[in-house]
Each structure stands twice: as C-alpha cells, then as structure tokens.
Amino acid sequence: MAVGKCEFPHMHAVPGIKLGTACAGIKQTERDDLLLIEMAEGSMCAAVFTQNAFCAAPVLVAGDNLVKQPRYLLINSGNANAGTGEQGLLDVRASCSAVAKLGAVEREQILPFSTGVIGELLPVDKIVAALPEAQAKLQADNWTKAAHAIMTTDTFAKGYSKVIEIDGQAITITGMSKGAGMIQPNMATMLGFIATDARVSQENLQQCLSVAVEQSFNRITVDGDTSTNDACVLMASGKSSLPEIMPGSDAMQQFQVAIQEACMHLAEAIIRDGEGATKLIKIKVQQAISNAEALEVAKTIAHSPLVKTAFFASDPNWGRILAAVGRSGVDNLDVNKIAIYLDDVCIVENGGRASSYTEAAGQKVMDLQEITVTVMLGRGGLEQQVLSCDFSYDYVRINAEYRT
To answer: What's the CATH fold of domain 280-400?
Structure first.
C-alpha cells in the first residue's frame, strides 16, 4: 500500500541511452527481472555506492569498473549476490563477460548491479541465457519496462522525467529508482539510475551526483538498515546541442538543481512505497549547531520503533517523540529551549507538554496520511530534513515472508 499518488510519469527518451529487459527467472517468472542499459560511445558515468562493509560483489566490481568509461549497465532483481565471497565475484565477472561479448566491448566497461535476497549464489546461467533477449530489445523508450524489471518488494514502479532548458538549449533528465525496505542509504535495498543527454565531464558529473545524493537518497529511511547493494548512477550521453557544462557556470548551477530535483523525487517515491507504509513522515530539525547534529536528531526520531508504531496507530503519543529527541546524543541539550510540532500544532515547549496543546488537535494531525514533525533545538541556525514512514503489521509480514 503506497502513500499518496504514485502515478508513473511519461518517460522522455534520452538520446544515447537504450534499455532492454528480459525474464531470466531468477526468483520468479511472472515478469522481467533483467535489465541491460547501453550508453553511447563517449558517454560519461558517475556513481555512488553503499558503505556497508559487506557490500555485494557487483558493488565491488562496479566500483572498480567505473573508471573505465562504462558502456553498459547490467541489473538483475531477485538475487543480491551479497555475502557470497569469492564465488560471488567470479559470478558477476562471468555475467559482465557475457555482456561484453554481446556488445563487443571490454569486460571492465560493464557496471553490474543486483538486488534481492542476500547470501544466495547468482544464477549466472539464467542471466547469460536471457541476455540476448535483453540486447535485442534495447530501445530508447523502454524506461517503463526497465523500472518494473528492477523491482523487488516495491508495489509500484518509480520514475521521473523532465525536459529543461539551459542557455536556450533543451536537455532531458530521466530516471528510475527501486526500493521499499532495508532502506537507510548511506553512500551510499535501493537502486537509482538517472540519465541525461547533457555534456558533462566525468569529474563534474561525479561531483554533481554526490551533492544531489547527499540531500536526497541519504535523507530517507524506512527501517534504519543500510543495504549491501545500494547504488545510484548518473549517465550523461552528451547528445544534446548544449555545449559542455563547465564548473562554476550558471549552466552548472541549473544542472545541479535539476539533478537534485530528480534525486529528491525518486527518493520520496521510495518512502511512499516503504514496506507496509500507511503514512509519509517528514522530520525537520531546526536551530541546530551543526548539520550533523540536526541529522542525528532527525534520524533518531525516524528510526524509533515506538514513534513509527504510534504514527501507524494514529496515536498522538507525543512523549515518544520527546524521548527520541532526548536520547539522540546531543551534547549539553537544554530541554527547556526545545519546541516540537506536529504540523502546526505545538506539542512540546519549556521542557514538557505545550500549554496550548489538546489531544483533539494532536489527533487531527495524526489522522492525516502525510505529517511533518518539526523540532526546534534553540541552539543555532542550521537545519536538516529526513523523510520516513510508519511501521505497520504489513512491514513485519513482508519481511518475515521475504524468502518464501
């Protein structure tokens, strides 16, 4: 059950980028589970990866191959190829070799990505057998099928597409993401793939993506678990008529804003699809001494099972939020200066329940599907925001039955 409107948008084709899907039967046979993305020669590619120490075999290989001017991305769902040791590396390299042979490129020009169950060996034979079909279906307008092929526990495909104008020239930005559980990206089971026809150097593309990810995918959490497979990729084919976007230029500033908007939209879609989620919770922490302090308070609230279950029950149990702020680890926190709000309803001030607060006012907010929690620390001028969701019965059911 997704929170709010989650319609899949019209996806503009990106010149120089083609996508093809196939059903390899990795975990199921009802839909495509293999995706091949082809980038035109000369395309630039940037990526960020999970910081989980048990990062998956494809993450290790993709990180090594990123410097080789990649030509293809190979993505499978249904199997994470994580916790598979040396055999996992051999399997992912074999898959990359098969793609390289089909595309007449070097194995090191393939970036592999996997999502699914941890600890099971990758069925390489199934992937290799399905690759010719995926290659035969390579098309620029295949984003919709691609977004569905990378899903696991997702209840809807997640996409973003927009044509913008920079210096009088149109550029296209189109992307997709997947993820619903094991979500606390720390780049950093989420994957994101964004493409543009802008011309940008690899160094500047990487800088742009890193900044955008920090303010989007690294500001969401469903359950506090950082996956072994998290990755986000930004591809630039350079096929637009716009001259190369240079650092420090107005064009770069506009491009940065556009990429950040794409990332934020795709990140929010993941939270709207949080496993079993019934509410979207926006947590703003203001008046902090540092961004790190604000982020820590926000994530402490977002990760609290007691807070999350109260939201699911639509129970205005404000004491759980207060307790989370108090245990967030902020040094020398003066609780008498803190104010906490549910939307525009003040629930805490002067060290306790706000004098103006009523249970009816709190209940009215908690009955909503989308709620903003604002915490004013009264310590400084910095602010951070995190998107999260509630914990429902279905979250437990989905994850208890994940391997069945």
So the answer is: Ubiquitin-like (UB roll) (3.10.20)
Place 189 in a pLDDT band, splitting at 50, 70 and 90.
low
Please report which helix (H) or strand (E) contains residue 52, including its range: none
Nearest to 329 by CA among 356, 361, 303: 303
Characterize the bridge pairing of strands 191-196 and 231-236: parallel
Give 230's contacts (C-beta < 8 A, 6+ positions apart): 49, 50, 52, 185, 186, 187, 188, 189, 190, 191, 217
Residues 17-272: name the CATH superfamily.
Answer: L-amino peptidase D-ALA esterase/amidase (3.60.70.12)
Cβ(327)–Cβ(303) below 8 Å: no
> Annotated catalytic residue: which of 153, 189, 226, 374?
189
Known catalytic residue at 153: no
pLDDT, one tens digit per residue, over 73-125 is 999 999 999 999 999 999 999 999 999 999 999 999 999 999 988 999 999 99
Listed by start position, the domains of the chain span 17-272, 280-400
pLDDT score at 4:
78
For residues 3 and 307, which has the higher predicted lDDT (pLDDT)? 307
Non-local (6+) Cβ contacts of 332 within 8 A are none
